[in-house]
Amino acid sequence: MCRICFKEVESVEHIFFRCKWTKEVWKLSSLKLGDLQSVTLLIRWFDKILALDDRSLALGHPPISHSEEGCNVQKWQLPQMGFWKFNCDGAFCPKSKTAAFSIVVRDSEGRLLSTNYGRIRVSLALAAKAWAIRVACSMVKCWGISAIIESDAKRVVQLCLHREGDSCKKVQTIIDDSLLFISGCNAVFSWCKRSANSCANWLACRARKGLLPPPPLSPLLDEFCKLLAADLDSSD
Hints:
The protein is an alpha/beta fold and 236 residues long.
């Protein structure tokens, strides 16, 4: 909940556009909202400014890189040297209305660096998968590293790559938040098959059922270790 107006959830769109206080700030500013009525359009506006004056590179923040949309990776692959791979997934049960996200972070040698997961309140499976990417983007921003953010949710990856907008506002708001987090970072969005995302899927399913301790996962469970080993073997 917004701590200023206490009327809406404190989403990025609310912070920049809908909050009563924000509207007053825009009125007093020399910059006008104009057609910037969504976070996606606002990000594009910032991108144009950065293209005119490459201040992001001068500050040491490389621009976002994009992977090819039709990646179709069948098996888990090692990230390139200097990158960490964030495998993301979400789980949702329509009957119980329970959902969870999960993230598995590994380096270019396949070493497990971190895990993150937890239950969330969403009403769509796609929203759960989008939330996992949102959390991964915030982790990349916080750690300041080069990253590959990978998911088996093709639609969500497409939205991250092309910023084209989605008919479901709940999903689009999560994507907008993700892109705002990752702005100025060196990150690659990648789509893979479910078979290449088994570790994240395993964590998400068990997190949804409440079968895991608070993150990060410790000690590592045998079944999860076997999945990690299988990914490493398939990457050779």
